[in-house]
Design goal:
374 residues, alpha/beta, Rossmann fold, Glutathione S-transferase Yfyf (Class Pi), Chain A, domain 2, 6-stranded antiparallel β-sheet, 6-stranded mixed β-sheet, 11 helices, 15 strands, 24% strand, globular
Length: 374
């Protein structure tokens, strides 16, 4: 799986841009604030239908313009054209092969893994950050999960709305029963899928981490659904077991929910941990250890997606070479060079070994102008 061509109109600092990509390694070189990361952002949009940087879609539209078009030809089992149209005063439009589609059908056509210096949020950030990571990664490879997630969000919204009327308008709580049942059934299926994903990703991350750390440390990922009070205990994640725990938790908090006016339990409160030598990396890991753990997780995502879809995703590396020592740079590039399409931004081409750049497409980026090195 790779992107063959990218076309931009009115996107960030690019009035127009057409780029042909190497199926293997692509390196974008330039000083900061020239537009390198904007290219990665555009490619990411074609996979996730959202930015990894902008809080609002309108922030990506070039100043003074009403719209932005991001279009790409991606090669999977066949070649598909993907388009994202961002508009100042209207919702974004998504198209697959010129046909307008919804986000749940758009996400998953083309898959990517992104690694940036800000990825320490996976360890240092909030549970919400980690849940968003889980949801995006599973959604890229599992259309069923995407549908479940949307259904759960709708049920949660309806249930919270009803709880608010119960709390503040003294409405009959008996009306909650139908939403309780759906919350438990859909939420339990989400938790089972998350547990399966963390188990697989954890095994793969452990292997990658051994290579990155020369076998000196052991990495584990541990899922902590909302009903687990002691993460170190063994927990069963069959549908029936999760449904039983969910039902118990909902019953035990019902009276408090009536007072507060919102749902207190469910997968919207899940989390997971990175453990290095069985210690929580958020508390006990150095920044170097944390960065290595996140890199191992990102590399494991490649293998996880390959196992789920049959194809490797593309990987986007945004100015991460300067954050890694020589050993980790070598391990990373050796691994990627032979497996997946890699799109890298850097301020210094000297961070790359000559045998990598000889086979790569190298582009120089300056003030929104991109020129391929010949």
């Amino acid at each position: 799986m790779y992107i063959k061509q990218l076309r931009l109109s009115n996107f960030r600092n690019y009035k127009t841009l057409t780029l042909d990509f190497n199926p293997k390694v692509n390196v974008f070189v330039g000083n900061n604030a020239q537009g390198k990361s904007n290219i990665l952002e555009a490619v990411y949009l074609l996979a996730a239908a959202r930015s990894f940087r902008a809080a609002k879609d309108g922030d990506m539209i070039q100043s003074g313009q009403d719209y932005s078009l991001i279009s790409g030809d991606v090669v999977t089992e066949a070649t598909h054209n993907l388009e994202v149209v961002l508009q100042k005063n209207a919702p974004k439009v998504l198209r697959v092969d010129k046909k307008e589609t919804q986000q749940k059908q758009f996400v998953g056509v083309f898959n990517v893994v992104l690694f940036t210096p800000d990825d320490l949020y996976l360890i240092k950030g909030s549970p919400g950050d980690r849940r968003r990571f889980l949801d995006l990664e599973i959604s890229q490879v599992d259309a069923g999960y995407r549908s479940l997630l949307l259904d759960y969000q709708k049920v949660l919204q309806h249930r919270n709305s009803l709880l608010k009327t119960i709390a503040f308008e003294q409405k009959d709580p008996g009306m909650l029963e139908i939403w309780d049942q759906q919350l438990i059934e859909i939420g339990s299926r989400l938790i089972v899928k998350r547990a399966e994903m963390i188990h697989k990703l954890g095994l793969l991350s452990r292997l990658m981490h051994r290579g990155l750390s020369n076998g000196s440390e052991e990495l584990m990922l541990r899922y902590i659904p909302f009903f687990v009070s002691n993460p170190e205990e063994e927990n069963e994640y069959s549908y029936q077991a999760v449904k039983s725990r969910f039902t118990e938790a909902l019953l035990s908090t019902k009276s408090l929910e009536y007072k507060r006016g919102y749902t207190l339990v469910g997968p919207q409160r899940d989390d997971f941990q990175f453990l290095i030598n069985r210690l929580d990396a958020k508390i006990y890991g150095s920044q170097g250890q944390q960065r290595t753990a996140v890199l191992a997780c990102r590399l494991a995502e490649l293998e996880y997606m390959k196992s789920e879809t049959g194809s490797y995703p593309a990987i986007l590396l945004d100015d991460v070479m300067s954050e890694l020592d020589q050993l980790r740079r070598h391990f990373l590039l050796e691994l990627l060079h032979k497996k997946v399409q890699t799109i890298i931004t850097t301020t210094n081409i000297a961070d790359f070994e000559q045998k990598i750049t000889e086979d790569a497409a190298v582009y120089h980026v300056k003030a929104g102008q991109v020129q391929e090195r010949r």
